[in-house]
Design brief:
The chain is α/β, with parallel strands linked by helices and 288 residues long. It contains twelve helices and nine strands. β1, α2 (43-60) and β2 form a beta-alpha-beta unit. One of its GO terms (molecular function) is carnitine transmembrane transporter activity.
């Protein structure tokens, strides 16, 4: 009888322990899925979004779905509650057209990367230093400025720059980040002249010897930041995630280093995972 009681007590203790062990998992399963929009072909967007998603999963316990699209649809998705947030708002200039259209339907959460810059870049061996200076060398540049994907804010600004600086011999060649940087690499290898849309942070500044062309009319703005935007419903849906996104920010130099690491062959998941392990204080400041 005594032996039976000991067995029963041990069984009850094991069951209780097992039940307690299941509680956090059950609790996590009850948390809402967070949907983050991003532009997968943009290195900064890809990395910051995966970084935020990893912290939300690991530290806050919410499942996360990543929704890839172009810039315009990304903004529309947040405004229409198809996604909860995005971390790719290039402001105050590049995405101005999207913000002015949708500002009443989104909540600005502040910068997650500061000190950004956009414009037109050329290899340093090209003896042109201003956007206006491109005008007399249309033939050398094959009459083109190589841009990125259709709908990107920097493409819109480049179309404005072509008009503002009277570059009638030029047109914007819509491309992609991968195709644009491939053309830049090939041109530099052959010492050819090329003009491309460019921005910081971006890995290509560490990879290629290039320079921004001066933009005295400030068509591309005077510098800015990459911001986080949330749908208003997120504050009620997940106060913890809302607070986290409000605090989330990464130094530009560290983001640039992550982008170069990924460019050199490390997967985004592996790079982000290693960064999180190496920066516990910063991560704690986001979720505390």
């Amino acid at each position: 009888m005594k032996q039976f009681k000991r067995i029963l007590q041990a069984g009850l203790l094991a069951a209780a322990t097992l039940g307690m062990g299941l509680l956090p998992a059950a609790h996590a399963a009850d948390k809402p899925t967070i949907k983050l929009g991003y532009v997968q072909s943009w290195p900064s967007s890809d990395i910051t979004t995966h970084l935020a998603a990893a912290v939300i999963k690991q530290r806050l316990g919410n499942p996360v779905d990543l929704v890839a699209s172009g810039a315009g649809p990304m903004w529309e998705a947040v405004a229409s509650d198809h996604t909860d947030a995005m971390l790719t708002a290039w402001l105050p200039t590049t995405h101005k057209v999207y913000y002015e259209k949708l500002w009443q339907k989104v909540v600005p959460m502040g910068p997650n990367v500061t000190g950004t810059r956009l414009g037109i870049a050329v290899p340093k061996y090209v003896p042109v230093n201003t956007i206006a200076g491109l005008k007399k060398y249309a033939g050398k540049f094959q009459g083109r400025i190589v841009g990125v994907g259709a709908g990107a804010g920097i493409n819109i600004d480049t179309e404005k720059a072509i008009k503002a600086y009277g570059l009638s011999g030029f047109h914007l060649q819509t491309s992609s980040v991968a195709a644009m940087t491939a053309q830049l690499k090939r041109a530099i290898k052959n010492k050819q002249w090329i003009a491309v849309t460019a921005w910081t942070p971006m890995w290509m500044w560490a990879k290629f010897d290039i320079k921004f062309l001066k933009d005295p009319k400030h068509i591309y703005g005077k510098g800015g930041y990459i911001g986080t935007m949330a749908n208003p419903a997120l504050a009620k849906k997940s106060p913890a995630v809302y607070a986290f996104l409000n605090r989330f920010a990464i130094p530009r130099a560290q983001l640039s280093a992550l982008m170069l690491e990924v460019k050199n062959g490390t997967s985004v998941k592996a790079a982000v995972g290693a960064w999180i392990k190496a920066h516990p204080k910063m991560v704690n400041s986001w979720v505390s």
